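Batch manifest, entry 17 of 40.
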Amino acid sequence: MDLLALTADALREPWRLWTSHLVHFGWNHVLANTLALAVPAILVRRQDRGELLITAFLVMPLLSLLLLPGLGPSHYRGASGLACALWAWVGLRLAIRRESFSAGLALLGGLALKVTLEGAFGSSLMPSQQGWQSLPAAHVWGALLGLAASFQRLPGPEAVVPHRA
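Output type: structure tokens
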């Protein structure tokens, strides 16, 4: 068993709470997760990049702890749940600003569509690969954690999109 993957041993080996998001099942898995992480990394405002990194660092163990009860004897590797958290975090941060409302709404809408379709069909939108299968629960928990984290420090009212009747 991989010493970095998330397993029931994570409570005795706490590094797994972070490292499980850094290890993958193969190059296809790495590429898919890298592309998913690149979207919020590219769209985040320059002044929010440091907070994005801190958010990612804090979300990793929380997401791992939320996934542990459902793993059973299995294990988790990958960054798709983290990517969903960052899509939600960046999406909400962008959507509340006048100049980036559309980009933020597109991120949040794409994430909502992904999670909804996975919930409706009971699997990931990505085809299963040899040796690994996506974990939709990681995407739901990641999205929820990203939304919760984004409420920690939102910009002042001058940046918020005005309500139109």
